[in-house]
Design a protein that fits this description.
Blueprint lengths: L2 E4 L9 E7 L6 E2 L4 E6 L4 E5 L4 E6 L6 E3 L3 E6 L6 H4 L9 E3 L6 E4 L11 E4 L9 E7 L6 E2 L4 E6 L4 E5 L4 E6 L6 E3 L3 E6 L14 E4 L5 E3 L7 H9 L13 H10 L17 H5 L6 H6 L2 H4 L12 H16 L2 E9 L1 H10 L9 H15 L5 E4 L2 E4 L5 E3 L1 E3 L2 E3 L2 E2 L7 H16 L13 E5 L18 E15 L2 E15 L5 H16 L7
Parallel strand pairs: 24-28, 28-29
Antiparallel strand pairs: 1-8, 2-4, 2-7, 3-6, 4-5, 6-8, 9-10, 10-19, 11-18, 12-14, 12-17, 13-16, 14-15, 15-20, 16-18, 21-30, 22-23, 24-27, 25-26, 29-30
Length: 529
Amino acid sequence: MAELIKMPRLSDTMEEGTVATWFKKVGDKVEEGEILAEIETDKATMEFESFYEGTLLYIGINENETAKVDAPLAIIGEPGEDIDSILGNSPKNEIKNETVTEEDKTIQIEQAETEVDEDVHVISMPRLSDTMEEGTVATWFKKVGDQVEEGEILAEIETDKATMEFEAFYSGNLLHVGLKEGDSAKVDSLLAIIGPKGKDISRYLNVPTKKVEVTKENVVAESKPEIKKADQAIQNTSEVIKSNDRIFISPLAKKLANERGIDINQLKGSGENGRIIKSDIENFKAPVQSSIAKMPSSTQSSIEDYYEVNHSQMRKVIAKRLSESKFSAPHYYLNIELDMSETIAFRKQCNSIPDTKISFNDIIVKACAVALKNNPSVNSQWFDDKIRYNNFVNIGVAVGVEDGLIVPVLKNADKMSVADISRSVKEMAGMARDKKLTPEMMQGSTFTISNLGMFGIESFTSIINSPNSVILSVGSIVEKPVVKDGSIVVGNTMKLTLACDHRVVDGLTGAKFLQSLKPLIENPLSMLI
């Protein structure tokens, strides 16, 4: 069935958009997740991806043309499929866009094979990030039978990138919950049904669900909770005490307990008012010593002590994306060694300024941003049908977190000072570890830096963060004998390894980039001139 795509609302103040570039033409095959177009809003020019796969049958807004939000943008379907009825707004085939409020809340409704009453709302698992394929319900803030008001928080949903709050777009009673806490399901799977109290919903359990186009207004990241008083009371209650045979536990602690197979009945909360918190899970030790002691000494040595953890959504996506990158992109590696003596002196001088604290990594980020502007062939990305050379520099900085790896992105890093970079990296790294980054903060990188130098790793190789064409691995600064002016002296060196996708970046191109990068890091003052 053909899908009508409308001009999206890409910012909270956007009323119209201009198509800057189409990356597909009529007749082209489109895969789900591919970038369809670049759309200029009132705030920025943003990439717009397809949530459907098929053939591009129609383009409603040409390049450099402007149209209101919700105007017909494109149609994707099967080759030869009749689209006249869609363009003619036929009730049978039109895919409606209903504006829930005057704010940025848009719901795309698929036609159901069975007529659905207007007062019954079938809600599906939303797509909360560009790479999300499935989600896990971390916490329900409502239970079946509860009254739900439009705008109230229904649940916390764990994606591959963050745990996010998901709000209701309708008022009514929660009649059905499709997933229990801790359960996972694909995007568009049945999540909940809201309707009048006492409504017979048996015939709705197998009909198509309502697809939610998630925007800033209908999904609230953990960094900016906007929970109404009733929801806040439920959330607070769920984290404090055990009563009436129900164990109350924070969502994160419950998630960790499920992953590690820990019976929460054995736990005693150490949080405020006896709540079970994350540290209680991490410090828990199963009572196995007594049973081992009772075994014959001949069998005690054969005891195997281990626990298993189910894959988190983040770990699943890391495994998938890195496997795709490693086995599809032909990696090769270039290595250089830098003299860091002047860099050390530069950092020490900068940090003597009050309220200034920069790291070596901040200097490296700035140097890479400058070098990328001078070497645009490296600031590139591989797609199946084209290579994109970016005129902007967005640098992803890999941050290790409890469940894996997150790459927050410094947008337009070439326009930032070293001090600006330092503040932004610290802020985003903290938000990453607290799972408070929004999807927008992790999208759009053109270059990635991975630094393990602070752990004493002298050199290593990294897997390219697709669709980028390179990634830089940064090692530790090592004090060792070096030769200067024919004499052996004590020096400080650091090794860099550039992993390159040979489909995009040839050896000479990668070598010229490192040749340009080396003097910028070794003499940071040159970046200020």
